[in-house]
């Protein structure tokens, strides 16, 4: 069922959204079946905070604190490999195979350590003309991904060859979402990648947002992106809205955006999610004039996951 939801979402985006890649659009309805996928991968992301997953040598069941990951707990999901405190930036997460939903999942942890926060604060931009003309990306995010990319490329390609029929999903919350997005769009994985990010910050300038949108956004050349934001979460908009940053560096959001409008600690229904197209679309999170850090920690559930670790 989940596999068909992923395929439907990609086809839906390709058929209905090409005309809205650059121009802002009114809200659209959520595709059937996508809500469950959004919740499931938010739980995979929350589980990226759990040491039993990111310290796993492989072969262990994907674990989460009781009550935090109800959908994930019902799956036959096994950690294939964990990775932790990869420098620079203490990059942490795990790769898992889900035999219930027949997917491979690469999940990245969000900001938890001093090293994570140092990377977040390295918001000056670096040019990457070999990727796309005029593209500039966040220095900290880019070099954090670059340092771990070859390690993950080999592992993910290896397991993709074993589970050939399993779609590949990248997911992450906050900093983890930025790393998942860069990995999905910058590398050749030998297959399309479906990307689920939750409360992820902007990655780079308009040129890079345009490139990303065309590569793994609405057009789905390399895959399909589900970029989820929540009400007035400050993280997805801070790089373009902070005056101390924006006066030196221009940041843009990608398209599409799946904006959760329900309050914190409230179950999310399909009617609570608005779908917006257009780079820097001001109809969703980017257009909110207030900020609530608690909104950053609630995406279908508590994104703290293993809060004591």
Provide tags for this entry.
309 residues, alpha/beta, Rossmann fold, 8-stranded mixed beta sheet, two-stranded antiparallel ribbon, 10 strands, feruloyl esterase, hydrolase
Q: Can you walk through the features of this model?
A:
- With 309 residues, this protein is α/β, with parallel strands linked by helices.
- It is built from eleven helices and ten strands.
- The chain has helices spanning 2-16, 34-46, 51-54, 70-73, 114-120, 139-162, 175-186, 206-216, 238-241, 243-246, 293-296; strands at residues 77-86, 91-98, 103-108, 125-127, 136-138, 168-173, 193-198, 223-230, 257-260, 273-276.
- The strands form two sheets. It has an eight-stranded mixed β-sheet, with helices on both faces.
- α8 (206-216) links the parallel β7 (193-198) and β8 (223-230).
Question: What would a concise description of this structure say?
Answer:
With 309 residues, the protein is of the alpha/beta class.
Question: What's the helix and strand layout?
Answer:
Elements: H1 2-16, H2 34-46, H3 51-54, H4 70-73, E1 77-86, E2 91-98, E3 103-108, H5 114-120, E4 125-127, E5 136-138, H6 139-162, E6 168-173, H7 175-186, E7 193-198, H8 206-216, E8 223-230, H9 238-241, H10 243-246, E9 257-260, E10 273-276, H11 293-296
Helix pairs in contact: 6-7
Signal peptide: 1-17
Catalytic activity: feruloyl-polysaccharide + H2O = ferulate + polysaccharide
Family: Belongs to the AB hydrolase superfamily. FaeA family.
């Amino acid at each position: 069922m989940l596999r068909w939801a992923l395929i439907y979402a990609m086809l839906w985006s390709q058929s209905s959204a090409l005309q809205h890649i650059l121009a802002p659009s009114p809200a659209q309805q959520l595709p059937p079946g996508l809500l469950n996928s959004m919740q499931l991968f938010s739980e995979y992301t929350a589980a990226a905070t759990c040491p039993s997953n990111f310290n796993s040598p492989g072969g262990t069941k994907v674990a989460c604190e009781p009550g935090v990951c109800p959908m994930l707990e019902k799956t036959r999901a096994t950690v294939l490999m964990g990775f932790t405190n990869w420098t620079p930036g203490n990059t942490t997460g795990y790769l898992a195979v889900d035999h219930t939903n027949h997917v491979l999942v690469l999940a990245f942890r969000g900001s938890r350590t001093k090293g994570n926060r140092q990377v977040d604060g390295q918001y000056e931009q670096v040019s990457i003309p070999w990727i796309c003309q005029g593209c500039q990306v966040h220095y900290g995010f880019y070099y954090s991904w670059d340092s771990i990319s070859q390690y993950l490329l080999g592992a993910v390609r290896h397991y993709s060859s074993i589970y050939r029929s399993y779609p590949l999903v990248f997911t992450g919350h906050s900093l983890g979402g930025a790393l998942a997005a860069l990995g999905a769009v910058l590398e050749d994985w030998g297959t399309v990648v479906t990307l689920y990010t939750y409360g992820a910050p902007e990655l780079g300038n308009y040129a890079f947002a345009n490139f990303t949108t065309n590569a793994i956004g609405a057009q789905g050349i390399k895959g399909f992106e589900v970029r989820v934001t929540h009400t007035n979460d400050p993280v997805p908009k801070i790089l373009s809205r902070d005056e101390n940053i924006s006066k030196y560096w221009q940041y843009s959001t990608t398209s599409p955006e799946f904006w959760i409008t329900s309050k914190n600690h409230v179950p999310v229904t399909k009617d609570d999610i608005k779908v917006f197209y257009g780079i820097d679309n001001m109809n969703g999170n980017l257009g909110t004039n207030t900020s609530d850090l608690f909104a950053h920690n609630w995406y279908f559930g508590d994104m703290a996951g293993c809060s004591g670790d």
